[in-house]
Design goal:
This protein is an alpha/beta fold and 282 residues long. It is 36% helix and 16% strand. The strands form two sheets. It has an eight-stranded parallel beta sheet. The radius of gyration is 18 Å and the shape is globular.
């Protein structure tokens, strides 16, 4: 089992000491052209997590390739590049421009921008023809048949899955009763997402047996073990990094002393020996 960050929850160039606690770094989603994202306010706390409506703020493909990526390589970490766009060609052109990175995460599920007109499988298929790098499709649990979608992107050439992205939610101003965020809705992350994420990982692992990056409400060692028990090979930390930047170190230290029986008792979807080899390979 390897620890990553969820895309957009950590800037490794600003906080390299946090990134170096991880086994790999996932970039913010890169779009072909620079984007400022949505108008503020675009972040709001909730009782059980956080809403964001950042809207894929991005330096753009060329600036990322010539400025950000060389500096990120200096960290010496395996790099996962998150790629976004508004049509299949947007994704494929960025994939074709990337080399010498560990993997590409195709952001097919951002709740804060309009979705690409092309289907997820069409995007994956075109990206597969554009690169030989590993492709992980990041899917939304809001899809009515997530298992079917996972099988479709696997058939189109995805090497793995990232599960899950945030889900749309809303908070209201207590005085005006108007939406807190300028966009109205935003992506909900944090503890409230964990049961949804576990179901998604469990469903998609059963459907495809592909490697999965599990994320959504992960903040404790138990959360990590639960993700692995449902089929995740990698586990990503998101919202917790804002409040506890040293969470990766804490979780890794706690995993090193987890009792074998505890791991076995939590395993309910994947073979016990498979789970134990993942959890203790840290």
């Amino acid at each position: 089992m390897l620890l990553l960050n969820a895309s957009g929850c950590l800037d490794a160039l600003v906080a390299p000491e946090v990134a170096l606690q991880l086994d790999g770094f996932v970039t913010k989603t890169i779009t072909p052209l620079p984007r400022e994202g949505n108008a503020p306010p675009r972040i709001a706390e909730t009782e059980h997590g956080m809403l964001n409506a950042i809207g894929l703020a991005s330096p753009g493909r060329e600036h990322f390739l010539h400025d950000h990526l060389p500096r990120l390589r200096e960290l010496g970490l395996p790099l996962w590049v998150s790629v976004g766009g508004f049509c299949a060609e947007d994704y494929a052109e960025t994939c074709a421009a990337l080399d010498d990175v560990y993997a590409i995460e195709l952001n097919l599920s951002c709740p804060n921008v309009d979705e690409a007109a092309d289907s997820a499988s069409e995007i994956v298929a075109l990206c597969r023809r554009s690169t030989s790098l590993p492709l992980y499709a990041k899917l939304s649990a809001a899809h009515p048949d997530l298992g079917q979608l996972a099988r479709a992107v696997a058939a189109a050439g995805a090497d793995g899955l990232s599960l899950i992205n945030t889900l749309r939610g809303m908070t209201l101003d207590p005085v005006s009763h108007a939406p807190t965020l300028a966009r109205g809705s935003g992506g909900l992350s944090g503890p409230a997402l964990k049961p949804v994420a576990l179901h998604a990982v469990h469903t998609c692992f059963a459907a495809t047996k592909l490697p999965i990056v599990g994320m959504g409400g992960v903040a404790t060692t138990r959360d990590v073990i639960d993700m692995v028990s449902c089929g995740a090979r990698y586990v990503a930390l998101g919202t917790v990094l804002f409040s506890e930047p040293d969470a990766p170190r804490r979780i890794r230290d706690e995993l090193s002393v987890v009792e074998l029986d505890d791991v076995r008792n939590r395993a309910h979807a994947v073979d016990n020996s498979h789970i134990m080899s993942r959890v203790f390979a840290v």
